[in-house]
Every structure is written in C-alpha cells, then in structure tokens.
C-alpha cells in the first residue's frame, strides 16, 4: 500500500516548498514492506517522474540519508536523526518512561505510548517485557487507529465529524475475524472510549492480541497521547485485564498527565 502524502490537500504557494514536500514523500515511500526499492518503484509509490525521483534520491544519498548499490535504494540509519529530533524536543517522554517502567513491573506486560498522526498511531515510547510477542513494535512504528486501543483512545479526543472523516479516508481492512470495518461501528466504540475514559480492543489488530489504553492529557484537558498495556488472550482474558490492570493503567496515565502539567 502506498503511503498517503500529508500534503495532498495543500496547494503550492509562497509558503509551500514543493521540492521539500516531494522529498518527504520519497522518504515516506520506504517501509517494512518496501525497505529497498528501485528508482521505478519509488517513482510509482510517490507519483513522481523517474527523473524527479532520481534527483531527490541522489540528493538524499549525498546527505547520507539514502544508500544505493547501483540498482536498489534504501534508507540509512542517519534517517533516525529526524525522528529523534522530535523525541528529544518533547520532554514528556523523559517524564513518561520511568512511570511506564513501574507499570510494566506491576502488570508484567508490555506498555507503550503513541500519538495520533492522520489515521494512524505512531509509537513514541515502548517498555517491553521479556515475553516474545508476534507483534514486534518499536519507536516510529505505525498502526491504524481504527482497530487499536491507543488509536480509539486518541480518536476519542476529536469531534465525531473529524473521527468519521479520518475513518472514511481509507478502506478499513478486516485484519482478523474480529475487526470492525464499518466506520459507524468504530465511531460507536470511540464514543464509548470517550465516555468511560479508557478503551479495550480484543483481537481486532491481530489474532490473540489484547490491549487496553488510557489517554494522557495536557493542562487544557486535551488528549495528546495514549498509553496501553498489551498482552495475549491465552494468558489474560479481557475481563481479567480490565479487573487487574485498568486501575494501574489509569493511574499511570494520570501521573504522566500531572507531571506534564505540573499539577
């Protein structure tokens, strides 16, 4: 699936640098499904001409963000500088990590934090247990918001009309037999998450995967991130997760929110 360009609805003008926007599209064309690409593949995924894609790739190669063996192009580790610039500019993650580590010690499951970016969530912090899970995620990983607990929690911080716009911006894929794919049905779950202040998703992202999330809010009460606990249903049922882990999860979210606001 080709990445959705964030600039699709913008029109070039005095404040819009089209070549820069195209460069970002080229970077975003690389993914876990396409870690190494030919020039033609990059051009196809970005909608650029081969000549345009080539100029951008060679520029990125000169700057050290892309490498090539003469046929295939790939991102280099230097591209991480762009992501870590965001993380280092957001002191909240320094505040959140030790609190999340305490939660992991208490519940013995992996704990993550994510923010909303378009119709996706982006992982910004993850504290894992030593248990091996099929769903291997790290900082910068992206998942769809509609079928994840953190996604629905983050969507709950938006007006319903904005939630529906995001849900309708791309087809909702049935990732498992449990996945809700009707925008109205997903909206109902988002509204439920908004009312109760937390969200549990049972095997909608991956068979056997269970997760529960709570919002992190700023001083104005606006949701700025979400944290979740993830586990396996063969170890913990949804009822057990809610009964034993919801209270510490919400307390962790409250502590992070309080530390951010100085309350």
From TrEMBL:
PROSITE patterns, sorted: HTH_ICLR, ICLR_ED
Record's keyword annotation contains DNA-binding: yes
Domain IclR-ED: 78-262
SMART domains named in the record: HTH_ICLR
UniProt KW keywords: DNA-binding, Transcription, Transcription regulation
Superkingdom classification of source: Bacteria
Presence of the UniProt keyword DNA-binding in the record: yes
Residue span(s) of domain HTH iclR-type: 17-77
GO biological process, one term: positive regulation of DNA-templated transcription
Stored InterPro entries: GAF-like_dom_sf, HTH_MetabolicPath_Reg, PcaR_PcaU, Tscrpt_reg_IclR_C, Tscrpt_reg_IclR_N, WH-like_DNA-bd_sf, WH_DNA-bd_sf
SUPFAM superfamilies referenced in this protein's UniProt entry, alphabetically: GAF domain-like, Winged helix' DNA-binding domain
Pfam family, one: HTH_IclR
MF term (GO), any: DNA-binding transcription factor activity
Entries under NCBIfam families matching the protein: pcaR_pcaU
Protein name in the entry: Helix-turn-helix domain-containing protein
UniProt organism field: Ramlibacter montanisoli
């Amino acid at each position: 699936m080709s990445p959705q360009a964030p600039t699709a609805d913008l029109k070039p003008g005095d404040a819009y640098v089209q070549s820069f926007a195209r460069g970002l599209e080229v970077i975003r064309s690389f993914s876990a499904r396409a870690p190494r690409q030919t020039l033609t593949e990059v051009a196809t995924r970005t909608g650029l001409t081969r000549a345009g894609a080539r100029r951008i790739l060679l520029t990125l190669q000169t700057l050290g963000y892309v490498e090539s063996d003469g046929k295939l192009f790939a991102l280099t580790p230097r591209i991480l500088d762009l992501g870590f610039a965001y993380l280092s500019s957001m002191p909240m993650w320094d505040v959140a990590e030790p609190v999340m580590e305490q939660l992991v010690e208490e519940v013995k499951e992996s704990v993550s934090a994510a923010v909303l970016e378009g119709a996706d969530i982006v992982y910004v912090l993850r504290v894992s247990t030593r248990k091996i899970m099929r769903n291997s995620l790290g900082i910068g990983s992206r998942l769809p918001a509609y079928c994840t607990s953190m996604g629905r929690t983050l969507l709950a911080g938006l007006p319903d009309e904005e939630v529906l716009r995001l849900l309708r911006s791309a087809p909702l894929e049935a990732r498992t037999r449990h996945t809700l794919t009707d925008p109205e049905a997903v909206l109902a779950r988002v509204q439920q998450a908004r009312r109760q202040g937390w969200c549990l998703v049972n095997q909608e992202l991956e068979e056997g995967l269970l997760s529960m999330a709570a919002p992190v809010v700023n001083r104005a009460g606006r949701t700025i991130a979400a944290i979740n606990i993830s586990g396996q249903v063969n170890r913990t049922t949804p009822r057990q997760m809610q009964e034993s882990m919801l209270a510490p999860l919400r307390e962790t979210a409250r502590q992070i929110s309080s530390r951010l606001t100085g309350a």
